[in-house]
Design brief:
The chain has about 325 residues and is of the alpha/beta class. The protein has 13 helices and 11 strands. Helix content is about 40%, strand content about 20%.
Length: about 325
Protein backbone atom coordinates (compact mmCIF):
# COMPACT_ATOMS: atom_id res chain seq x y z
CA UNK A 1 0.00 0.00 0.00
CA UNK A 2 1.39 3.41 -0.97
CA UNK A 3 2.06 6.00 1.72
CA UNK A 4 -0.49 8.81 1.91
CA UNK A 5 0.84 12.38 1.93
CA UNK A 6 0.01 14.18 5.19
CA UNK A 7 -1.44 17.58 4.30
CA UNK A 8 -2.88 20.61 6.09
CA UNK A 9 -4.85 23.35 4.34
CA UNK A 10 -5.09 26.98 5.45
CA UNK A 11 -8.14 28.49 3.72
CA UNK A 12 -10.43 31.48 3.33
CA UNK A 13 -13.27 29.43 1.79
CA UNK A 14 -14.13 30.82 -1.00
CA UNK A 15 -15.48 29.02 -4.07
CA UNK A 16 -12.09 27.79 -5.25
CA UNK A 17 -10.97 26.99 -1.69
CA UNK A 18 -14.08 24.78 -1.51
CA UNK A 19 -12.93 23.05 -4.70
CA UNK A 20 -9.52 22.52 -3.11
CA UNK A 21 -11.07 21.17 0.10
CA UNK A 22 -13.11 18.66 -1.90
CA UNK A 23 -9.93 17.35 -3.52
CA UNK A 24 -7.89 17.24 -0.30
CA UNK A 25 -10.70 15.59 1.67
CA UNK A 26 -11.51 12.94 -0.94
CA UNK A 27 -8.33 11.87 -2.72
CA UNK A 28 -7.10 8.55 -1.29
CA UNK A 29 -3.44 9.55 -1.60
CA UNK A 30 -3.85 12.49 0.78
CA UNK A 31 -4.12 12.35 4.56
CA UNK A 32 -5.89 15.59 5.52
CA UNK A 33 -4.70 16.21 9.08
CA UNK A 34 -6.33 19.60 9.75
CA UNK A 35 -7.81 22.73 8.16
CA UNK A 36 -7.26 26.24 9.48
CA UNK A 37 -9.30 29.30 8.55
CA UNK A 38 -8.45 32.96 8.02
CA UNK A 39 -10.44 35.99 6.90
CA UNK A 40 -9.96 36.76 3.22
CA UNK A 41 -12.41 35.93 0.46
CA UNK A 42 -15.14 36.30 3.08
CA UNK A 43 -15.24 37.35 6.74
CA UNK A 44 -13.92 34.72 9.13
CA UNK A 45 -17.31 33.45 10.41
CA UNK A 46 -18.41 32.74 6.82
CA UNK A 47 -15.07 31.09 6.06
CA UNK A 48 -15.46 28.75 9.03
CA UNK A 49 -19.08 27.87 8.15
CA UNK A 50 -18.17 27.21 4.51
CA UNK A 51 -15.20 25.05 5.48
CA UNK A 52 -17.24 22.92 7.86
CA UNK A 53 -20.01 22.53 5.27
CA UNK A 54 -17.58 21.22 2.66
CA UNK A 55 -16.00 18.78 5.09
CA UNK A 56 -19.44 17.55 6.19
CA UNK A 57 -20.39 17.01 2.54
CA UNK A 58 -17.30 14.81 2.18
CA UNK A 59 -18.07 12.87 5.35
CA UNK A 60 -14.91 14.25 6.95
CA UNK A 61 -16.33 15.57 10.22
CA UNK A 62 -13.31 14.15 12.05
CA UNK A 63 -10.85 16.58 10.46
CA UNK A 64 -9.92 19.25 13.06
CA UNK A 65 -10.80 22.82 12.04
CA UNK A 66 -9.32 25.90 13.70
CA UNK A 67 -10.50 29.51 13.36
CA UNK A 68 -7.62 31.94 13.00
CA UNK A 69 -6.96 35.56 12.15
CA UNK A 70 -10.03 37.61 11.26
CA UNK A 71 -8.03 40.42 9.65
CA UNK A 72 -4.58 41.19 8.23
CA UNK A 73 -1.68 42.10 10.49
CA UNK A 74 -1.83 45.82 9.63
CA UNK A 75 -4.48 46.55 7.02
CA UNK A 76 -8.24 46.69 7.32
CA UNK A 77 -9.81 43.53 5.81
CA UNK A 78 -11.07 43.68 2.23
CA UNK A 79 -13.12 40.66 1.16
CA UNK A 80 -13.80 39.26 -2.32
CA UNK A 81 -17.52 38.60 -2.10
CA UNK A 82 -17.93 40.27 -5.49
CA UNK A 83 -16.19 37.14 -6.82
CA UNK A 84 -17.38 34.44 -4.40
CA UNK A 85 -20.94 35.53 -3.54
CA UNK A 86 -22.41 37.10 -0.43
CA UNK A 87 -21.80 33.99 1.70
CA UNK A 88 -18.37 33.42 0.15
CA UNK A 89 -19.37 30.08 -1.40
CA UNK A 90 -21.54 30.90 -4.36
CA UNK A 91 -24.83 31.60 -2.52
CA UNK A 92 -25.82 28.02 -3.36
CA UNK A 93 -28.15 27.50 -0.40
CA UNK A 94 -26.06 24.40 0.31
CA UNK A 95 -26.81 22.59 3.60
CA UNK A 96 -24.97 24.23 6.47
CA UNK A 97 -22.99 22.36 9.08
CA UNK A 98 -24.41 22.36 12.58
CA UNK A 99 -20.88 22.16 14.00
CA UNK A 100 -18.47 24.84 15.12
CA UNK A 101 -14.68 24.91 14.89
CA UNK A 102 -12.53 23.18 17.47
CA UNK A 103 -11.40 24.82 20.67
CA UNK A 104 -7.83 25.34 19.43
CA UNK A 105 -7.15 28.58 17.59
CA UNK A 106 -5.62 28.09 14.13
CA UNK A 107 -2.02 28.84 15.10
CA UNK A 108 -2.27 26.48 18.08
CA UNK A 109 -3.77 23.74 15.90
CA UNK A 110 -1.03 24.18 13.30
CA UNK A 111 1.64 24.10 16.01
CA UNK A 112 0.25 20.93 17.57
CA UNK A 113 -0.15 19.06 14.27
CA UNK A 114 3.36 20.01 13.13
CA UNK A 115 5.05 19.16 16.43
CA UNK A 116 3.30 15.79 16.41
CA UNK A 117 4.61 15.22 12.89
CA UNK A 118 8.11 16.26 13.93
CA UNK A 119 8.06 13.59 16.63
CA UNK A 120 7.28 10.88 14.08
CA UNK A 121 9.08 9.56 11.01
CA UNK A 122 10.01 11.35 7.79
CA UNK A 123 6.77 10.06 6.27
CA UNK A 124 4.78 11.99 8.91
CA UNK A 125 6.09 15.39 7.85
CA UNK A 126 3.35 17.75 6.70
CA UNK A 127 2.85 19.48 3.37
CA UNK A 128 1.24 22.78 4.35
CA UNK A 129 -0.96 24.32 1.65
CA UNK A 130 -1.96 27.95 2.34
CA UNK A 131 -4.72 28.99 -0.07
CA UNK A 132 -5.43 32.32 1.57
CA UNK A 133 -3.74 35.40 3.00
CA UNK A 134 -0.82 34.06 5.02
CA UNK A 135 -1.65 35.75 8.33
CA UNK A 136 -1.95 32.48 10.23
CA UNK A 137 1.25 31.13 8.70
CA UNK A 138 3.30 34.23 9.52
CA UNK A 139 2.09 34.13 13.13
CA UNK A 140 2.87 30.41 13.37
CA UNK A 141 6.42 30.56 12.03
CA UNK A 142 7.43 33.61 14.07
CA UNK A 143 5.72 32.45 17.30
CA UNK A 144 6.57 28.75 17.12
CA UNK A 145 9.56 28.35 14.77
CA UNK A 146 10.21 24.91 16.24
CA UNK A 147 7.04 23.72 14.47
CA UNK A 148 8.92 23.98 11.17
CA UNK A 149 10.59 20.66 12.02
CA UNK A 150 7.28 18.98 11.17
CA UNK A 151 7.08 20.50 7.70
CA UNK A 152 7.97 18.72 4.49
CA UNK A 153 7.32 21.89 2.49
CA UNK A 154 4.86 24.72 1.89
CA UNK A 155 2.88 24.89 -1.36
CA UNK A 156 1.02 28.19 -1.36
CA UNK A 157 -1.47 29.72 -3.74
CA UNK A 158 -0.52 33.34 -4.11
CA UNK A 159 1.53 35.88 -5.99
CA UNK A 160 2.64 35.82 -9.60
CA UNK A 161 5.68 36.46 -11.72
CA UNK A 162 3.76 38.49 -14.30
CA UNK A 163 0.12 39.10 -13.37
CA UNK A 164 -2.18 40.77 -10.86
CA UNK A 165 -5.88 40.50 -10.05
CA UNK A 166 -6.58 42.46 -6.84
CA UNK A 167 -4.63 45.27 -8.48
CA UNK A 168 -2.75 45.51 -11.76
CA UNK A 169 0.35 44.38 -9.86
CA UNK A 170 -0.79 42.20 -7.00
CA UNK A 171 -2.56 38.87 -6.52
CA UNK A 172 -5.37 38.89 -3.93
CA UNK A 173 -3.96 36.58 -1.24
CA UNK A 174 -0.66 38.46 -1.03
CA UNK A 175 -2.31 41.87 -1.50
CA UNK A 176 -4.74 41.19 1.36
CA UNK A 177 -1.88 40.84 3.87
CA UNK A 178 1.47 41.63 2.22
CA UNK A 179 3.27 41.89 5.57
CA UNK A 180 2.20 38.33 6.40
CA UNK A 181 3.42 37.07 3.03
CA UNK A 182 6.76 38.85 3.45
CA UNK A 183 7.19 37.51 7.00
CA UNK A 184 6.32 33.98 5.85
CA UNK A 185 8.86 34.00 3.01
CA UNK A 186 11.51 35.49 5.29
CA UNK A 187 10.80 32.85 7.96
CA UNK A 188 10.99 30.07 5.37
CA UNK A 189 14.41 31.34 4.30
CA UNK A 190 15.55 31.49 7.94
CA UNK A 191 14.21 28.04 8.81
CA UNK A 192 15.19 26.22 5.60
CA UNK A 193 11.61 25.44 4.55
CA UNK A 194 11.10 24.37 0.94
CA UNK A 195 8.43 26.52 -0.76
CA UNK A 196 6.43 26.22 -3.99
CA UNK A 197 4.55 29.29 -5.25
CA UNK A 198 1.43 28.35 -7.23
CA UNK A 199 0.50 31.80 -8.48
CA UNK A 200 -1.60 33.53 -11.11
CA UNK A 201 0.81 32.46 -13.88
CA UNK A 202 -0.75 28.97 -13.62
CA UNK A 203 -3.92 29.66 -11.61
CA UNK A 204 -6.18 29.99 -14.68
CA UNK A 205 -4.80 26.95 -16.52
CA UNK A 206 -6.84 24.03 -15.07
CA UNK A 207 -10.43 24.61 -16.17
CA UNK A 208 -13.78 22.82 -16.06
CA UNK A 209 -16.42 23.59 -18.67
CA UNK A 210 -19.96 24.71 -17.87
CA UNK A 211 -21.19 21.58 -19.65
CA UNK A 212 -19.03 19.39 -17.37
CA UNK A 213 -20.29 21.27 -14.32
CA UNK A 214 -23.92 20.75 -15.34
CA UNK A 215 -23.23 17.08 -15.98
CA UNK A 216 -21.89 16.73 -12.44
CA UNK A 217 -25.05 18.23 -10.98
CA UNK A 218 -27.35 16.19 -13.23
CA UNK A 219 -25.59 12.92 -12.44
CA UNK A 220 -25.03 13.41 -8.71
CA UNK A 221 -27.19 16.34 -7.46
CA UNK A 222 -26.08 16.04 -3.82
CA UNK A 223 -22.83 14.97 -2.23
CA UNK A 224 -19.33 16.11 -3.20
CA UNK A 225 -19.85 15.90 -6.96
CA UNK A 226 -23.10 17.84 -6.76
CA UNK A 227 -21.40 20.57 -4.75
CA UNK A 228 -18.41 20.56 -7.12
CA UNK A 229 -20.64 21.03 -10.16
CA UNK A 230 -22.56 23.87 -8.55
CA UNK A 231 -19.38 25.67 -7.54
CA UNK A 232 -18.02 25.54 -11.08
CA UNK A 233 -21.35 26.53 -12.62
CA UNK A 234 -21.53 29.53 -10.27
CA UNK A 235 -18.14 30.73 -11.48
CA UNK A 236 -19.13 30.33 -15.13
CA UNK A 237 -22.31 32.29 -14.57
CA UNK A 238 -20.61 34.97 -12.44
CA UNK A 239 -18.04 35.68 -15.15
CA UNK A 240 -20.24 34.97 -18.17
CA UNK A 241 -17.87 32.25 -19.39
CA UNK A 242 -18.24 28.72 -20.73
CA UNK A 243 -15.54 27.38 -18.38
CA UNK A 244 -14.10 28.20 -14.96
CA UNK A 245 -10.73 27.79 -13.29
CA UNK A 246 -10.12 25.28 -10.53
CA UNK A 247 -8.14 28.09 -8.93
CA UNK A 248 -6.83 27.14 -5.51
CA UNK A 249 -7.55 23.46 -6.14
CA UNK A 250 -4.65 23.51 -8.59
CA UNK A 251 -2.23 23.90 -5.68
CA UNK A 252 -3.56 20.66 -4.18
CA UNK A 253 -3.22 19.03 -7.62
CA UNK A 254 0.43 20.14 -7.55
CA UNK A 255 0.92 18.20 -4.30
CA UNK A 256 -0.66 15.09 -5.83
CA UNK A 257 0.94 15.38 -9.27
CA UNK A 258 3.99 17.67 -9.25
CA UNK A 259 4.98 16.51 -12.74
CA UNK A 260 2.03 18.50 -14.12
CA UNK A 261 3.76 21.71 -13.05
CA UNK A 262 6.85 23.46 -14.46
CA UNK A 263 8.71 25.47 -11.85
CA UNK A 264 11.91 27.49 -11.64
CA UNK A 265 13.80 28.22 -8.42
CA UNK A 266 13.95 31.99 -8.14
CA UNK A 267 14.43 34.74 -5.54
CA UNK A 268 11.10 36.28 -4.49
CA UNK A 269 10.28 39.40 -2.46
CA UNK A 270 6.99 41.06 -1.54
CA UNK A 271 6.61 44.76 -2.29
CA UNK A 272 5.37 46.52 0.86
CA UNK A 273 5.62 50.21 0.03
CA UNK A 274 4.78 50.90 -3.62
CA UNK A 275 1.81 53.16 -4.40
CA UNK A 276 0.76 51.02 -7.37
CA UNK A 277 2.61 47.82 -6.56
CA UNK A 278 2.00 47.09 -2.87
CA UNK A 279 1.50 43.35 -2.47
CA UNK A 280 3.27 42.43 -5.70
CA UNK A 281 5.58 39.42 -5.59
CA UNK A 282 8.86 40.54 -7.12
CA UNK A 283 10.16 37.43 -8.89
CA UNK A 284 13.78 37.96 -9.89
CA UNK A 285 14.46 36.31 -13.27
CA UNK A 286 17.75 38.08 -14.03
CA UNK A 287 20.37 35.73 -15.42
CA UNK A 288 23.51 37.87 -15.14
CA UNK A 289 25.42 38.05 -11.87
CA UNK A 290 26.77 41.47 -12.82
CA UNK A 291 23.35 43.02 -12.46
CA UNK A 292 22.82 41.31 -9.13
CA UNK A 293 26.20 42.49 -7.86
CA UNK A 294 25.28 46.11 -8.53
CA UNK A 295 21.75 45.90 -7.13
CA UNK A 296 21.70 47.98 -3.91
CA UNK A 297 18.97 45.73 -2.48
CA UNK A 298 20.90 42.49 -2.98
CA UNK A 299 19.26 39.21 -3.86
CA UNK A 300 16.07 38.23 -2.04
CA UNK A 301 16.85 35.68 0.69
CA UNK A 302 13.81 33.55 -0.19
CA UNK A 303 14.61 31.13 -3.03
CA UNK A 304 11.39 29.37 -3.96
CA UNK A 305 10.06 27.12 -6.73
CA UNK A 306 7.86 29.44 -8.79
CA UNK A 307 5.24 27.74 -10.97
CA UNK A 308 5.44 29.10 -14.50
CA UNK A 309 3.53 26.53 -16.57
CA UNK A 310 0.85 23.93 -15.83
CA UNK A 311 -0.77 21.04 -17.66
CA UNK A 312 -4.28 22.38 -17.15
CA UNK A 313 -6.27 19.50 -18.67
CA UNK A 314 -4.27 17.00 -16.60
CA UNK A 315 -5.13 18.78 -13.34
CA UNK A 316 -8.77 19.29 -14.34
CA UNK A 317 -9.07 15.56 -15.04
CA UNK A 318 -7.50 14.72 -11.67
CA UNK A 319 -10.03 16.94 -9.88
CA UNK A 320 -13.04 15.64 -11.80
CA UNK A 321 -12.06 12.01 -11.26
CA UNK A 322 -11.64 12.64 -7.54
CA UNK A 323 -14.92 14.45 -6.87
CA UNK A 324 -16.84 11.78 -8.82
CA UNK A 325 -15.18 8.91 -6.98
CA UNK A 326 -13.38 7.45 -9.99
CA UNK A 327 -9.92 7.40 -8.39
CA UNK A 328 -8.75 3.96 -7.25
CA UNK A 329 -9.02 3.70 -3.50
CA UNK A 330 -11.67 6.42 -3.27
CA UNK A 331 -13.05 6.41 0.29
CA UNK A 332 -16.72 6.57 -0.78
Amino acid sequence: MSVRTPIVLDVDTGVDDACALLLAALHPSLDLRAVTCVGGNAPLPDVVRNTLSVLDTCGRQGVPVGAGAARPLLEAPVDARHVHGDDGMGDLDWPRSNRGPGSRQAVELLRDVLLEAAAGSEEDRITLVPLAPMTNIALLLRTYPEAARGLERIVFMGGAAHLGNATASAEFNVFHDPEAAAITLDACADLGIEVVMYGLDVFYGPRVSLAEARDLVAAHDTGPAGLAGRLMAFQCERFGADSATLGDAGAVCAVLDPDGLTTERLPVRVELAGTWSRGRTIVDRRDWDGNLAHDPHGQAPALIDVALEVDGPRYARLWLETVTGKVAGFPG
